[in-house]
Structures are given as structure tokens and as C-alpha cells.
Amino acid sequence: MIAGLAATSIAVIPSVGFAQEGQQPQQQQPSQQAQPASDKEEKEVEALVVTGSRIKRTEFTSTSPIQVISSDGAALQGVVDTADMLQASTVAAGSPQINAMMSSAFVTDGGPGAATISLRGLGANRTLVLLNGRRAGPAGTRGGVSAFDLNVIPQSAVDRIEILKDGASSIYGSDAVAGVVNIITKTNRDSAEIEAFASQPFEQGGETYRVSGSWGKTFDRGYVSVSADYFLQKEQKVGDRDFTNCPVQYITNYTTGARSDLIDPRTGKPACRDTPWGQLWLYDFSGAAPLPVGAKLQYDYGGNLGQYIPRVPANYPTGPGPSPDGRLVAPSTWYFADYGAPGSATLGVVNMNHPFIQDSSLIPETERMTVFVQGGYDLTPNIEAYGELLLNRRSSKTNGFRQFWTYTYTSDAFGAGDPLSTGFFGDFYMSPTAITDHFDAEQQVDYGRVVGGLRGSFGDFAAGWDWDIFTQLSRSDGDYTQDVILKEAVSASEFRTASSLCAGTKLAISGRNCIDVNWLTGDFMAGKLTDAEKAFYFDRETGNTVYTQKVLEGTVSGDLWKLPAGPLGAAFGFHYRRDEINDKPGAVTLASNSWGLTGAGITKGKDTTTELFGELSVPLVKGLPGIEDLSLSLSGRWTDVKSYGDNSTYKVGLNWQITPSWRVRATRGTSFRAPALFELYLANQTGFQGQRVVDPCINWQAALDLFRISQRMADNCASAAGPGGGVPGNYIGGPTSAEIVTGGGKGTLEAETSEATTIGVIWTPSFIDLSVALDYYEIEVNDEVTRLGGANILRICYNSETFPTDPVCSQFTRNSTSKLITQVRDRYINIANQMNRGIDLTVRYEHEFDFGRFTFDSQFSWQLEDQTALFPGNTVDTNGDVGDPDFVGNLQFRFERGDWTAFWGVDMIGKASEAEDINDHNNPAGPGIPPTTRYKIQTEFTAYHSASVRKKFDTWTVTAGMANIFDEAPPALTTLNLGQYSTTGYSVLASQYDYFGRRAFLSISKRF
Questions:
Q1: Cα-based torsion angle of the residue sequence 689, 694, 695, 696 in order, rounded to the nearest 10 degrees
Q2: I need a labelling partner for 296 at 20 to 30 A (CA). Which of 78, 225, 725, 912 fits?
Q3: How confident is the model at residue 977 (pLDDT cuts 50, 70, 90)?
Q4: Neighbour tally for 39: CB within 10 Å
């Protein structure tokens, strides 16, 4: 989510819901919204199906809290992407979301380029997405497909989005743990329209364009509506913005508050600390005087390193020729760097910001083409046939970079050195670490969904009863292409000696002719490989993921009988669903021949879900003093999942109209989610990652001194009670890899269960056009299914307050003698639980003046608790942490006069801090000495402003505006490597913030 784009028009009366399944509610006038419910009920109002219930009722009787986002209001802020519009809602904005940027920066479910919605921070696979009231099938690539990809539905087809803000598994089935998102498309068109949109940042990169066209016709007995949409968002590179192109340390003097970042003496400016390149990691087995902690060899690319640092540490041999005591000697073009006291030039000159990094994608290029068709036809006065067809193609491209390395001997090491290590002497292993831009990725996902159904009434046979039966097929077919480095090619040079040169042989898996490459050249380390070297090391592969979902569902609804307080409403139905996934990675990955990436097998599985459900709306009391109207809603569902078994869920709701101006509502219910297909059937995998990737304790003393880790992590690394015993402060790891074991959990995973409670108070006074709703929510998920990630397991363990008894510490093995990590166990598991609770506030004011109409909409959300217990007794509360702020809100001001509309919007993200989890200062001077350095580990309150003006002509509409008017950058943070938060450049990397900067937008539409 890009917060600068993200404000929405929250067109919601807090105590009401809106129509779904293609039905359009009658337009409300401002005076109606302020009327007491009892007065409104005297008017004839069409009964509608409301999100959160399958029973038809008037729009003034919603028991569950609902938020409605209008497409029109989002367009006034320059938001033309469904994901941006939805992720901006306060029920989502306060927690991490997956958008194109985040899914390309991290390994996420659905693959790169996917955009999903997670309500309350409980995960996209715990948020059910409906399209016109019907479950929408997942889309994406790789084995982790389980959630609806918002890329498949264009905003041009969307009328509004209704968000049910409490659990609803008993009404809509499994996955509705955190709530339900119902995307409702435009119908009842009787014209044609084309629209063009452009958004242009004031700086290069991130331009957005959209062209859409729609046509609709209403006949005597039916209707048809067609829309087509083309969307293009251009790439924004890391180097395109000042706040992302150089990750400086961002640390300050504890006493004066002045910046005290490490300085690169070559530029005189703070050193960029992104990804090291052009260095040789060193493993000393000489037994002589050890190297300074952290010391590496760096190639002198500019020929001027000698102006800033000595070539070797003090009292170290300079060569040429071997040292008598076996210490390292290197050619004159190599300098020792990355050692010394904090702030020293030998640290500042380390190369860590290659042009490949600048050219990598922060926001990938995304292109989408969509066609959406829907229609209905009255077969008889009581029966309508209806259908929908959705076809979407999403293509996304990401330019990336990566390190890669091998291990080799010096030329005379142990009497059997590497013959290509000319000029390097001593008993040393060396690990030349190169950089490459051969790490690009592309995805193309073709998604299709077709719905066909019949609905109608029973006529005189059962007056007042309606029925609906439909079938649905969705299919996601995605190709994912990625650049890879061949593991067998890199391995051919590992620990090479004169007797193990490979020239004249062939690689075992790929069959390529083996060549002996000299890694120890400046060009190779800088990523300037020859064509022959590129052909030897690099490859490109394509995998394919197909996910299909078939649904058959039927419902009947109506009034059972009249009670003194009103009719007893009921709905009953069945749901049958079959899901199937088949993910086949590329040939290199299948063969476990991709260097630095985990090998994978074919993820293939299917599951069948059968459900029966029922719902009652019971009017209890009406027309008594203090009880204008009191009703009870009851729902229950029985679910049987073939791979797991059966379970039952329920929900109880109470809706109490105390007076015409005051209403109280409450719900209590349970939800259920069986493990997704990929969580069950992910192919068993055994991969390997280098020690420096998984182990945060390597050179932990130097990392502490250089402000890269916290004091807690350093203390835990040193603790003799930890796994494998204490790790020395100068521990350098080793030239081996850790085994990472992953896989699905079929046969061991339990289904997730949850309980959700909401309590709300609504005030709609008669003397002013005002509506206020205050809702408390609490959701607890038990036996949550998750996979922690290999490197995360060690970071969580060594940063734990309960180390070493934290159960996460039992998920890996460290050798007690060598201290190497030998195995990390990272299968899908059931963790104990997750708890999320908070308060939502909605305020809406609307007034018709003589000179125009003024509307004020606002949504606020305060998160009170966001706790996760990975294991019983091990609870972490991330509420208020960076990326998980405890407050988000938005304000929208809208004034309409005739054909003119003026809009101003503000999106607000509350401050957040890691102070409870990370020491807010470091003290390299030693115990008892005042601290010297303070981290920037908090994000400030951030607000993004946008404004626009719209003018309607006879057949033309023009909207022009500006988003992120004050060019607010994401908050800056200290670039620590703790796994507590992520950064890009020196800015936080989180879905709440805007990375485009100030931009202008223009929309022009024409009706025919």
C-alpha cells in the first residue's frame, strides 16, 4: 500500500450495510441519514442482502461493523488500483500488506508482483475476498498460492468495496477469520464510457497509466455490462530517490544529537552500507598472529585506496612472496579493509553500493489487461439467469542483483594451494565475493473466472422466499521466470588445487563444458564477467503454477413467520468447493542446482470442502421505552475438509436500538481455517545456505561495535547456555553451508480456529447530519499455521528476551566444537496463537448548504494489542513496532457545487518504535562509561495530503489533482541488521508509506 495514494471515501453510515451481489441500494439523501431509524422504517425501503448476512433486510439493521469504500472517492485522490484502494482502509493500513513492492522485495505467498489484503494483520489467507458476494479463487505463482490477487480486478469495474470487520466463517466459510472483503462491480449501465488516467511523480520512476472502456445495456428482461482495462505502472529504481539510493547508518551522538555516521573518506560523505562487493572473506588457519577482527581484502578499483588507508594492518607482512610465519600476503592491488575502531577509514572505504544496486527495482514494472463481462436475463417473471466472466493477464518484471561467492586456497595453503591464486600466500581459505545483476525475474499470470447461476423467488408457492444457485470456475495459470547461478558451476572452483582443475570435463547436471575461472580479478569481483564466464555460470529458468477452484453453492432465504416484534428471517444453504494446485519449478530448481537458493520439488495437491450453513434473524422486542428495536442474529456452519476432517462454527449478534439516536451492537463468533494446499503439500526440500547468511553471531563483537546488532543479540551469542555453547566474539563462521529443511505439514498440521468479539456504539443524532460509530474488536487465532524462515529462526532466537529457553532456539543445531550451524528445521508448523484487539472510530458529517454540499468522512483505528505466541509461554507483542503502528486514520473533505467537486484528503500513520526490543543506544566504550551512540529506531507520525478538483461537462469529466502534496518521504531509520524491521536506503521499508513522492494526476472520461 502506498499511503500517499491511499485515502478513500468512506461512504458509510456506521450502523448500516450496503447491497451486494450486483444489487444497487437506493441513493440516500443527507436528511435521511440523520433520521431516527424508527422514522425511516415507516418509509418503504427495498430489502437487500447485506455483507455479513445472507438474510435480506433493510439497510438500517446491520449488526456487524461494516466499512464501505467507494471507487469514486478513491479516484478523487488519484487512486486507480484496487489494491491501493483497499490496503488504504484503516482496517488494513495499520498492519503489513503485500503489494507489488513488498512481494518483489521479500519471498511472499503468491509470488513476486502479487497484491493481497490482510485485515487486522492476521494474514491474507485469513481474509476472505468475495467478488459480488461470491468467493473468488486465488491467483499467483510458486507453491504458496492461497489468497485472492487484487491485480485481477480493475478499479474501473469496481463500484465499491464493503469490508466486514469481524470474523464470519459461520456465514461465508473458512478463511473468513479476520473478516470479509466484498468487491462489488458496476451494473445497470446504459451507456458507453472511456477513461484515460496518468500519474506523474515529480521525480523519475513510478509513472502510472490506465486506459479503460465500458459499455452497458439494460433490456426489458435483462442487462449486460462489459468493461476492459489496461494498466501500466513503470519501474521505480532504488537509485531514483534520495531516500532509497544510499543506506547510511543514520546514527547520532548520544549527548549532542549530531549525526555520527561512518564517513567514506573517498567522498567525505556518510558511507553507503548496502551490500558488500569486491572483497575476499578470509579464514585464518596460520596459527600466527591473527588478523584484526572482520578484516577482508578489497580490490583497489580506483587505484587510490593508498591515499586513505594502509595496504596492510600494522606490523603485517607486505610481500611479495610468502611470509615465514604463514600469515596472509596478497598482491599490491588488494588492501585490507572492514576492520578497526568505529569510524575508522578502513571501515569507511568498504565498497557497498554498486551501480547494480542503484539499477535494481524498488517498485517493479507491472502491466495488466482485463476484460470483465456480467449480465442477467429473466427466463420467467420469477427466475433470472445470470453470469460473469473475468479474464486478466498480469505481467511484472523485477531487476535485481545478488552476491555470489566460492571458497579457495591461497597458492601455497597446506601445500596444495589453488594454482590460480597467484600472489596470495599463507595458510588461508579465501572466499571471493562477487556481485552480479543476473538476478532478474518476470511473472505472467493468466487468470480466468466464470460464474453461471439461476436465482429467483418461489412465487405463490412460498411467498417471500428467494433462492439462488450458482457454479463457479476460476483458474490461475502463472509462469515465473528467474535468473539463476548454477550451483555445480560455482562448486567446480571450490577448494581447487592443481590436481582438481576441471577444464576438459563436463558439469554433471547441465552438461556444460567446465572452465577454470580466476575469481581473484577486479573485473570478476565487480560483476564484469566475460561472455564465456556468463555462459558457464548463469542460466534462466521458468516454472509454472496452476491453481483451479470449482464451486457449487445454493441458498434459500425468506421469512419463516411473523413474531410480535417482526418477521423471523432465515437463510439456509450448502457449499461445495474443490481446490487443486500444481506448481512445477524450473528445471534448475528441480535439480537443486540453483546456487544460493533452496531447491524445490513439485507441489501438487487437491482438497475438497463440503459445507452446510444456516442463519436466523430473530426480532425480540420492539417499541418499548429504552428498546426501540432489539434483534438477535444467529448463524452456524458445518464444514468438512477432506484433508483434515470436520468442524463447526457459530456466530451470535445482538442489535439494540435504544433510542432513535443511539444503537448498541455486539457479535461473538468462531472461525475455522484448514491448512492451505501449499501448507499441506509443499514438496519436501533440503537446501543449503552459507553460514554468513543464516548465522547472526558471526563476528558479533565487531557487529556490535559497528552498530549492526543490539546488545541483547551480542549477549545471547556470547552466552555459554545457548545452542552449541557460547560463540566467540571474533568467530568467523566457516566455508561450509547450513542444511535448511523445509516442507509441507500434511498429517501433522492442525486446522486453525479462532474467536472474534465486537462491541459497538452508534450515535446518529436527529439535530445534525452526523453519524458516529465506535467499535471494539478482539480476535484470537489458535494453532496458527506458519513457517518462520531459516535465517529468521536464528535471529528470533538470538534476539529473544527468553533466550535460550525460547522454543524457537530448538529449531536449529549448532556444532558445539566448530560453532557452525549444521541444520535449520523450517517446516510449516502450528504456533500457539495470535491475538489482535483494538478500537475503530468512524465519523461522518454531511450538510446541504444553499451554495453546495459539504461532506466530511473519517476513519480511525487504534490497535491495542498484537500478540503472537510462537510456542506456549513465549509471547511477543509487536503492537506499536515499526511496520505495525498502533494508530492509523484518514480524513476526507469534499465539497460539491453544481458540476464542480473539490476534495482534500489526509492519510495518517502513527508513530512506532522498536525501543522495547532493541537497546536505543550502544556503548562500545565499555561498561560503566556513558553511552556514546543512539540509534534511530522509531518512525514519526506521518501524514500524506492529497487534493483534486473535478469538473463535469455534458459528456466529459475531468479530474486533476496532486498526491503527497508536501513530498513527505518515508521515515528514516538506523540500518540495523536485526530482523526487527526492514529498510530501503535509510528509510523504513513498510507497506504503510509512500515511496513515489509528490506526483500530479489527471483523469479524463467521456460518456457516449
A1: 150
A2: 725
A3: low
A4: 12
- For the chain, how many helices (H) and strands (E)? 18, 54
Rounded Cα–Cα distance for residues 51 and 36 (Å): 22
CA-wise closest residue to 281 among 341, 223, 328:
328
CA–CA gap between residue 892 and residue 858 (Å, rounded)? 6
Residue 600 CA, distance from chain mean position: 22
Considering only CA atoms, which of 18, 25, 30 is closest in space to residue 844?
Answer: 30
Q: Is the pTM of this model over 0.85?
A: yes
Do 778 and 763 touch, CB atoms closer than 8 A? no
**Residues present in the chain in total:** 1008
Q: What is the DSSP letter of 19?
A: B
| Beta carbons within 8 Å of 26's beta carbon, 6+ residues apart | 45, 46
Q: How many other CB atoms are found less than 10 A from the CB of residue 371?
A: 16
DSSP calls for 126-183: GEEEEETTEEPPP--SSS---S--GGGS-GGGEEEEEEE-S--HHHH-TT-SSEEEEE
The span from the CA of 179 to the CA of 187, in Å, is 25
User: What is the radius of gyration, based on Cα positions, of the chain?
Assistant: 31
pLDDT at residue 923, rounded to an integer: 52
469-480 in b/e form (b: 16+ CB < 10 A) is: bbebebbbbbbb
- Asked if residues 216 and 223 have their Cβ atoms less than 8 Å apart, the reply is yes
φ, ψ (nearest 5 deg) of residue 33: -65, -25
Of residues 656, 632, 668, the one with CA closest to residue 757: 668
Per-residue model confidence (pLDDT) at position 2: 35
Q: What are the tens digits of pLDDT across the range 505-525?
A: 999 999 999 999 999 999 999
Neighbours of 827 (CB within 10 A): 18
How many CB atoms lie under 10 A from the CB of residue 77?
Answer: 31
